Amino acid sequence: MNSRERLLCAIDRKIPDRVPVSTYELVGYNSRAFENNDPSYARLMQVIREKTDCLCMWEPGSDAILPKSDHVGDFLETTSHPAELDVRRNVTDQFVETFSTLHTPQGPLKRATKVFNNVHTVWKTEHWCKGPDDVDRILAIPYRPVTYDFSDLPRIQGEVGDRGLIMTSVFDALGWCVELMELSRSLLWAMTETDHFARCVEIVHERVMENLRRMLDQQVVDFYRICGPEYATPPYMAPDLFRRFVVPYVAEMVELIHSKGARARVHCHGKMRHVLEMIAQTGADGIDPCEEPPDGDITLEEVKRQVGDRMCLFGSVQLKMLEHGSKAQIEEVVRRNMAAAKAGGGYIIMPTAAPINTPLAAKTEENYFHYIDTALECGAYD
User: Fold this and answer.
1) How many Cβ atoms sit within 10 Å of the Cβ of residue 73?
2) Is the dihedral of CA 125, 58, 178, 306 positive or negative?
3) What are phi and psi of 80, to 5 degrees?
4) Domain ranges of the chain
5) How far apart are CA 77 and CA 62, in angstroms?
6) Percent helix / strand / coil, the chain, rounded to 5
């Protein structure tokens, strides 16, 4: 089997020639990804290209007020209606701060982000909304459906080829709503002003579905990762709120994705024991990253037993293990994961995250080599 066939076989809960081995956000076949342009990652990325199965994370461009940028999840990605936006930047030797002012029909809102020179992510240091009144202000910006730009797709399709699948990430309505505020404020909003939160989720879901419909009508890729449900898992929210604010909305997204011939997986870090069955009820084809205790609250073996006949499992090698663990610890985790989830197919071994720092530490590099080799060694099916 080539990697594309192997991944599709596992996602469809069938038995491939071996368990697919993923390195998650370290994507071997995307020439524009930072990891393929950073000399400290060069040796690892060559091994990833040679030995693993690529799940290429790729996003189309768009005409949104703020087009998608790495790891920000900005609400302004949901509408293309013109809005006045003032931006000021503070550049230092160590980081870049961006201060934005959004002028809404009901008054201004402010947001701030920080990007450190040696870390490939964006930190929100101030969110657009500080309370429900600010949510009403940002929702006062009229909604105009987003138009997507797939002009880069032929490039990425040519680079990935049969060496993997192309995956686009989309947020559910709950994820967009929670991201409007700092997390503790969002959770307080959801629990104390639940009716207002519910109205916001309903409004945003209409946007999500229309934008997703337009995206899929224009072009369909192999796989869609639905982000956001993890914000409604315990201890953040009670299971009844997960049932109310995640299940029906994500199920509708999954149904639309399936109608276009693509597959979907739910992205859900943390504790999911009490919501796992609800996640399966969305009809999604897979779930990641299946974090085991102490980071999660359910073992991979239990996840396999409960939903493995309905969902492909992705996980669950903790990134902190790859960054700080010993080779013996990594080997033990890989073998335990294989024993827990390999049988009967429907399993893709994968870290829970990927390094974002530069330069890449030598220990992390060596541990990734050992993770890959051990997974290949014990991932074959008889």
Assistant:
1) 19
2) negative
3) -110, 10
4) 3-80+128-378
5) 8
6) 45, 20, 35
Per-residue pLDDT tens over the stretch 293-307: 999 999 999 999 999
Q: Which residue in the block uniquely carries the two structure tokens 């947001």?
A: 111
Distance CA 289, CA 306 (A): 16
At 136, is the secondary structure helix, strand, or coil? helix
Q: Is 214 helix (H, G, I), strand (E, B) or coil?
A: helix
CB 229 within 8 A of CB 266: yes
Q: What average pLDDT does the chain have?
A: 96
| DSSP-assigned beta bridge partners for residue 317 | 351
What would the pLDDT profile of 151-167 be if each residue is shown by its tens digit?
999 999 999 999 999 99
177-221 pLDDT, tens digit each: 999 999 999 999 999 999 999 999 999 999 999 999 999 999 999
Count of beta carbons in the 10 Å neighbourhood of residue 369 = 17
pLDDT score, position 68? 66
Helix, coil or strand: residue 164: strand
- Compute the distance between CA of residue 356 and CA of residue 123 in angstroms, rounded to an integer: 12
Please state, in angstroms and rounded to a whole number, the distance separating the CA atoms of residues 293 and 77: 34
The DSSP code for 77 is: G
Contacts of 152 (CB under 8 A, 6+ apart): 58, 60, 61
Note the pLDDT of residue 66: 81
329-345: pLDDT as tens digits: 999 999 999 999 999 99
β-bridge mates for residue 88, sequence order? 99
- The CATH number of domain 3-80+128-378 is 1.10.287.380: no
Tokens 């492909």: give the residue.
312
Supply 95's token pair.
Answer: 């980081």
Cβ contact 256:246 at 8 Å = no
Tokens describing residue 23: 């390195």
For residue 70, what pLDDT band results from cuts at 50, 70 and 90?
very low
Q: Is the pLDDT of residue 69 over 70?
A: no
| Residue 144 confidence (pLDDT) | 97
Distance CA 137, CA 37 (A): 41
Q: Tell me if the bond preceding 316 is cis, omega within 30° of 0.
A: yes
User: At 234, is the secondary structure helix, strand, or coil?
Assistant: coil
User: 3-class DSSP state for residue 274?
Assistant: coil
